[in-house]
């Protein structure tokens, strides 16, 4: 049961966000990777970059993916990196394009169905550290990317990744986008949409002629933004096409790597009826950790002065056990 001071959807979601910002501060050493299409990605190594960061240079390594408009310095990323370190694992976080604090070069962004950059980073890490146990975990949008990538790769993913996890995933993008605007997720969604519009405005010169910028800047819902910006910029017919092709739910049956899925039924970004419980439970490679309460990337216990972040604790135990 959630503590009395962080009860309910908003209590868990807000407590998770605010308390991680207060109690989970820190940053790592950043590395820029040049991509094959002429752009770049930024990795953040917690505890230092190997091989200089002994003894973690040979420890199991976990790649962390943030959520919508997050970054490698989001509270839940830093919190998990700290929990992994305590469990004997190293952590490196991927910043999606445009999320490292520096605009990316190309007229594109990131989205929930984009798995190419994850494939590139996993291959890079596997080539650098042959034989080193590698895991991958994503939060929210990042979790959707992880699960979709695992489903696409099928058994081939096991050649590079030994374990995976996903937290608070919007498995059905269409139902998640619509639900978040009409229910408890509305205040969070409005803030995220404002951040997305600001980022689109900053890329105006780069995306000119590819998107309807005026329509983008008028967007007040996820669907309106994705219709005007995300879909045309990334080759989708419209928002529905993006939601259909980008959702992770249809790919769950293809996952062959041991995977932990953490979710709360009161997640404000996905109606509980849209949670693909049958598919999650039907795949023996997936372990579902489902709770009635937890909000969106919440899962907070303890006290405000000494909080415990239950998702990170569970993830650290899972990766420490599975990767070793």
Write the layout of secondary structure elements.
Blueprint: H1 8-23, E1 29-34, E2 40-46, E3 61-65, H2 75-86, E4 90-95, H3 116-128, E5 134-139, H4 141-153, E6 163-167, H5 173-182, H6 186-202, H7 204-207, H8 213-218, H9 222-233, H10 239-246, E7 259-264, H11 277-282, E8 286-291, E9 300-302, E10 307-309, H12 310-323
Parallel strand pairs: 3-4, 3-5, 5-6, 6-7, 7-8
Antiparallel strand pairs: 1-2, 2-4, 9-10
Helix pairs in contact: 1-2, 2-12, 5-6, 9-10
What structural keywords apply?
324 residues, alpha/beta, Rossmann fold, eight-stranded mixed beta sheet, two-stranded antiparallel sheet, 10 strands, globular
Would you mind describing this structure in some detail?
There is one protein chain. By secondary structure, the protein is α/β, with parallel strands linked by helices. The protein has one domain (4-172, 247-323): Rossmann fold. It has 12 helices and 10 strands. The chain has helices spanning 8-23, 75-86, 116-128, 141-153, 173-182, 186-202, 204-207, 213-218, 222-233, 239-246, 277-282, 310-323; strands at residues 29-34, 40-46, 61-65, 90-95, 134-139, 163-167, 259-264, 286-291, 300-302, 307-309. The strands form 2 sheets. It has an 8-stranded mixed sheet with strand order 1-2-4-3-5-6-7-8, sandwiched between helices. It has a two-stranded antiparallel sheet with strand order 9-10. Strand 1 and strand 2 (40-46) form a beta hairpin. Helix 1 (8-23) crosses helix 2, helix 5 packs across helix 6 and helix 9 (222-233) crosses helix 10. It is globular, with a radius of gyration of 19 Å. The protein starts with 7 loop residues before the first helix and ends with a helix. The mean pLDDT is 95.
